[in-house]
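Project outcomes to date are best conveyed with an example. Our students and postdoctoral researchers have been running inverse folding experiments weekly, and each run begins with a structure described purely in tokens. The record below, which covers 482 residues, was selected by the lab manager from last quarter's runs and is presented without edits.
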């Protein structure tokens, strides 16, 4: 049977970094086996919907390179993959469970349920629906139940958990799991407004969409016994479950905004490369069994397997993310990076710049920047002749040094492309200028950089001069010491 997996977000917020990892693991697993990845929108909780959340989630996943084979964005066909378009289907399946005795009607009011929970808490009992004492079809009887239904009395449909049952299943990450039925609540399947709960809709959709593997966050592990019971109640074969570990803060608490960014859009806005973020996220809870730390997407697809996903929570190490980000800046093709930064350069108002030149600037400066977007400000002197101001005190100090002014003037007057063509030529030329002025070469390098770039720090000065060109540098030096 062909592998079919799904990522099923709820549009109640923007894409969390943990959700990106879940989607990524599903993508890597499906692609590695030649399977199908489905995007399904689970929007049954209508009270918590956030406007624009679905669009942002789809956009962020596409940015990260997680591509779906089926779903709302594929071919513009929303209906089959959005749960709010399938409510009749869920009601139909809820009634099937009532008819075969796996679910039942319950008519309890909110006040009655609150009283039940208070009694249980006072008795030291974990709150759970008490089928034997509450107002449902078993305590009311068939005649009273029929009467209430005929009067359209508010009611829900609950799962009937078999008494004395033991639920067993095998998790692809956690191994064999056994849960006593006494710990499982008679979960609501259809609410009083006719809307399904997550549990019913999820199971019906996974079965009808022929999902073979459910790869999801650890937080859904306690719900899995209920899902196993539902599969049995329908007479369906359950998929293989795999629950990936939680993401943790550095102090090993559950990951939260208090410790840093948690949404993918936060990392996008700061300038992280999708390749770097995906690489980092993939290794949060999974490793390939080798010392390799940097992967392309194709390498991740080739190496990923569920048996190497950890059970323990994965610490989100921001320092490690910074390292990965820097490695990608260093190793990516400068031409690819140039194409990404061009819109930012244009937005900053720089004259139109050829992509080949931008690529050379990136190659020169990339080890000195944290984000590619830093290039816009840090490399301003390579994109425009309108330079930052140098303090009047610094200018006065330089111009008061007659030997230094003489050396800089001589450097500018004799400057040719050949003099800055390579490191050896530049060293020979600079030493000669310094010697003629009675100075050491090192004494003129900082003022030379300041004259050409209006900055005290930067990349290799010879490469900087060569990139700018002799004529451009000559003009800047003359203007500086005038």
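After processing, the design step wrote out the following sequence:
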């Amino acid at each position: 049977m062909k592998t079919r997996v799904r990522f099923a977000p709820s549009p109640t917020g923007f894409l969390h970094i943990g959700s990106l990892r879940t989607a990524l693991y599903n993508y890597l697993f499906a692609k590695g086996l030649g399977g199908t990845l489905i995007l399904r929108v689970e929007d049954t909780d209508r009270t918590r919907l956030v406007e624009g959340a679905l669009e942002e989630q789809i956009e962020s996943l596409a940015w990260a390179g997680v591509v779906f084979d089926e779903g709302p964005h594929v071919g513009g066909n929303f209906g089959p993959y959005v749960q709010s378009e399938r409510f009749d289907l869920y009601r139909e399946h809820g009634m099937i469970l009532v008819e075969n005795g796996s679910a039942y009607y319950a008519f309890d009011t909110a006040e009655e349920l609150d009283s039940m929970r208070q009694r249980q808490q006072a008795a030291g009992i974990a709150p759970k629906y008490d089928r034997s004492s509450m107002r449902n079809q078993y305590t009311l009887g068939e005649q009273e139940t029929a009467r209430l239904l005929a009067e359209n009395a508010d009611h829900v449909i609950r799962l009937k958990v078999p008494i004395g049952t033991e639920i067993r299943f095998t998790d692809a990450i956690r191994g064999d799991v056994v849960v006593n039925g006494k710990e499982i609540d008679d979960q609501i399947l259809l609410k009083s407004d006719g809307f399904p709960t997550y549990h019913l809709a999820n199971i019906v959709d996974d079965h009808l969409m022929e999902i073979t593997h459910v790869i999801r966050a650890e937080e859904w592990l306690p719900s899995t016994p209920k899902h196993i019971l539902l599969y049995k109640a329908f007479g369906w074969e359950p998929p293989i479950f795999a629950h990936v570990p939680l993401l943790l803060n550095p102090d090993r608490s559950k990951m939260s905004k208090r410790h840093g960014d948690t949404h993918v859009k936060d990392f996008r806005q700061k300038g992280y490369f999708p390749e770097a973020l995906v690489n980092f996220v993939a290794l949060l809870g999974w490793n390939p069994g080798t010392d390799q730390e940097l992967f392309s997407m194709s390498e991740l697809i080739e190496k990923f397997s569920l048996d190497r996903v950890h059970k323990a929570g994965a610490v989100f190490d921001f320092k490690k993310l910074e390292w990965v980000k820097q490695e990608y800046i260093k190793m990516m093709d400068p031409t690819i990076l140039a194409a990404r930064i061009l819109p930012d350069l244009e937005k900053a108002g720089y004259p139109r710049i050829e992509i080949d030149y931008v690529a050379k600037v990136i190659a020169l400066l990339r080890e000195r920047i944290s984000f590619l977007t830093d290039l816009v400000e840090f490399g301003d002197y390579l994109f425009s002749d309108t330079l930052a101001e140098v303090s009047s005190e610094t200018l006065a100090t330089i111009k008061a040094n007659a030997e230094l002014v003489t050396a800089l003037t001589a450097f500018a007057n004799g400057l040719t492309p050949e003099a800055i063509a390579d490191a050896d030529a530049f060293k020979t030329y600079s030493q000669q200028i310094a010697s003629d002025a009675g100075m050491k070469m090192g004494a003129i390098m900082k003022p030379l950089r300041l004259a050409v770039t209006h900055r005290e720090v930067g990349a290799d000065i010879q490469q900087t001069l060569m990139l700018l060109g002799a004529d451009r540098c000559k003009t800047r030096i003359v203007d500086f010491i005038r």
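The chain has 22 helices and eleven strands. The first strand starts at residue 4 and ends at 7. The training component of this project remains on track.
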